């Protein structure tokens, strides 16, 4: 009797375990986390205080300050391994993000673990300008069969826009931003207290100023 009940109990446990769906984490999520921690490591090594932003904070993956906490920058990290155009996924919303204290870090891990990560630190104003100009050039360039391209929200930050005949965005346009970690510290405003209302929408924990 005891053995039969034990067998029934174990059978019930196995059925319950099979009914619970296995949690799966996408490779993209893991790659993004790896890129964020890699960037944070590079910033900490340069004596900047860097921490991951709370989950759900829009547009910022890492918050950076000096050792006194008197300056603040926000960094969004974009990661990739391989791709036909060597670029990173962006969207139309990134065309509107243009703040002095806000930067992107574009990380390329390469096709396998034998490759060393490569990073480009680019101010948000530069990224916004490139996305706008490259997307408009793409829209005005005929597609397959001479048909016009359809408008959509997807954008690409690419290391080379030669195919779009964009002046100034050839194969070396990203070169000045390679490992440009100094731009993170240089982008920070003098004090957090001077952050504008528009800036406060991007950086959590800042207090918007009162008019009048």
Sheet of most strands? 5 strands, mixed
**Class by SSE composition:** alpha+beta
Helix content: 25-40%
The beta-strand count equals 7
What does this molecule look like?
- It is a single chain.
- The radius of gyration is 23 Å and the shape is globular.
- It has a domain of about 130 residues: Trna Endonuclease, Chain: A, domain 1.
- The N and C termini lie far apart (about 80 Å).
- About 30% of the residues lie in helices and about 20% in strands.
- With about 210 residues, it is an alpha+beta fold.
- The strands form two sheets. Strands 1-2-3-5-6 form a five-stranded mixed β-sheet. A two-stranded antiparallel sheet has the order 4-7.
- The C terminus is likely disordered.
What's the topology here?
Layout: H1 2-19, H2 27-45, E1 49-52, E2 62-65, E3 72-80, E4 88-91, E5 102-108, E6 118-123, H3 124-140, E7 154-157, H4 182-187, H5 197-200
Parallel strand pairs: 3-5
Antiparallel strand pairs: 1-2, 2-3, 4-7, 5-6
What features would you highlight for this structure?
single chain; 212 residues; alpha+beta; Trna Endonuclease, Chain: A, domain 1; 5-stranded mixed sheet; two-stranded antiparallel sheet; 5 helices; 7 strands; 30% helix
Q: What is the compact description of this entry?
A:
The protein is α+β, with helices and mostly antiparallel strands and about 210 residues long.
């Amino acid at each position: 009797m005891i053995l039969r009940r034990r067998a029934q109990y174990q059978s019930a446990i196995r059925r319950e375990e099979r009914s619970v769906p296995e949690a799966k984490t996408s490779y993209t999520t893991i790659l993004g986390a790896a890129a964020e921690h890699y960037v944070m490591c590079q910033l900490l090594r340069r004596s900047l205080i860097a921490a991951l932003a709370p989950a759900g904070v829009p547009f910022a993956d890492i918050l950076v300050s000096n050792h006194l906490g008197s300056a603040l920058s926000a960094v969004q990290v974009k990661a990739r391994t391989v791709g036909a155009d060597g670029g990173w996924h962006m969207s139309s919303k990134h065309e509107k993000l243009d703040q002095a204290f806000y930067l992107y870090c574009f990380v390329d891990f390469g096709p396998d673990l034998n490759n060393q990560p490569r990073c480009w630190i680019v101010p948000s104003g530069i990224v916004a300008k490139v996305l706008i100009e490259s997307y408009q050039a793409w829209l005005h360039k005929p597609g397959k069969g001479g048909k016009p391209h359809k408008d959509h929200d997807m954008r690409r930050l690419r290391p080379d826009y030669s195919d779009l005949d964009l002046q100034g965005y050839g194969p070396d346009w990203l070169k000045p931003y390679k490992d440009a970690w100094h731009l993170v510290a240089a982008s920070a405003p003098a004090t957090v207290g001077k952050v504008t209302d528009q800036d406060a929408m991007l950086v959590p924990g800042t207090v918007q100023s009162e008019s009048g």
